[in-house]
Amino acid sequence: MTDVRIDQTAQPTGTSYRQARRSGMPMNACKKRPTIFPWPPVLLVTAVIAGLVLGHNAPYEITFPMARPSGLALIVTGLLIDIWAMAALRKARTTIWPNRSSSHLVVNGPFSYTRNPIYISNVMLLLGAGLLLGNFWFIPLAVIDAVLTYFLAIRREEKHLNANFGYKYEAYCRAVRRWI
Q1: Which pTM does this prediction carry?
Q2: Which of 32, 40, 84, 132 has the maximal Cβ count within 10 Å?
């Protein structure tokens, strides 16, 4: 576990000069909300539907003996991480929605291990579903989900958090990895 020594209840403070200079959008836009559309949950649901449709129309089975137990373990672990992350966000009284403005910088719970525990759990859920169902299509869809989540959500969320929390967020980024 990474020891993150940052004010656990950091309130928005402003922007760093470096972030303001690098950003391609006005800082006020970043400060209000990271994005207009809640991409990550939509991407997850779309990937599940695509995996089921592809598995039905073009079956490509996973047949190794431990696939189902491994898939179940990934799903349970992913759900537990999701619940833990959402509980940490709720405890800090900030939003769980990726398109809403964050009122607090959450650095405890699963956020002390990774800056994006919910998105990691989404990937785990997709991989677990593929293994549990014996459907190979979920594996490339999990990778696609992670890449699209990065480009459509994470980059903007990072700008939003930096615009709102400045040096505290930069210190958090130095202490905790984006993924794992």
Answers
A1: 0.81
A2: 40
